[in-house]
Amino acid sequence: MMNRAGAHGRPVAGDVLRLASVSKVYGTTGVPVTALKSVNLSLAPGTFTAIMGPSGSGKSTLLHCASGLDQPSSGEVYIAGQQMTFGNETELTRFRRGRIGFVFQQFNLLPSLTVRQNITLPSRLEGKRVDRQRLEAVVERVDLLHRLDHHPAQLSGGEQQRVAIARALVSNPKIIFADEPTGALDTHRAAEVLDLFDQAVREFGQTVIMVTHDPIAASHADLVLFLVDGQIVDEMARPNPATVAEEMARLGEEVARRHARSES
């Protein structure tokens, strides 16, 4: 199996994201835990990629390292051709603000700000004018027009998730990283959010990278990457829910057999 980076993470012209031999090891004492093992990945602008794998396979770690939220133990990360520099946190924060939107699993909303203020915060921190037309269109699609002046504590979990998604979309970043973005949503709301991601890709040329456990959500992507024990072990273009579910079942059985052998 080989993704667009090729076997050794060689750059491809026009990549919006490239990971070259990225590894992540946790723990400096005792037994270290390797979360990622020499991951090579290149993604083109205007694409929608889903990342799937068993629990503990490194999906969220991959998302965090690719977005600059966590520093790899080794390897290089490039966004729009520019290498992420992890030495200066101020510069890194400014770099992320201008190029990246992130939908966190735990929402990460500021409790003292209203819904409107939370959604527009990245743009305001960057000193950019808020596109009111885009703000209204996104907020209407996630059904939050009637909640703009409320605070996070007044919202349900699903509403907070939709605020987090709107925040990532409104500032029009080059890349949107989403960690289980539909996990707190019912089927109808989840479909609307996935349609929004589709629109971001098809109409605005943004790149979406989504971690999910849901084969239906993954079927919206152009490409599904399957992660096992910190490595990309397979990929699937033009996925559908049935084939994704079958592959996840196969990988789950393979991991179970591997663990059984290691314990015997």
TrEMBL record:
InterPro entries named among the record's database cross-references: AAA+_ATPase, ABC_transporter-like_ATP-bd, ABC_transporter-like_CS, ABC_transpr_LolD-like, MacB-like_ATP-bd, P-loop_NTPase
Q: Read off the PROSITE patterns from this record.
A: ABC_TRANSPORTER_1, ABC_TRANSPORTER_2
Keyword Transport in record: yes
Q: Under the GO molecular function aspect, what terms does this record hold?
A: ATP binding; ATP hydrolysis activity; transmembrane transporter activity
| Keyword Oxidoreductase listed | no
Residue ranges of every copy of the ABC transporter domain listed in the record:
17-254
Q: Which GO terms describe its cellular component?
A: membrane protein complex; plasma membrane
Domain of life from the UniProt record:
Bacteria
Q: What is this protein called?
A: ABC transporter ATP-binding protein
| Keywords (A to Z) from UniProt | ATP-binding, Nucleotide-binding, Transport
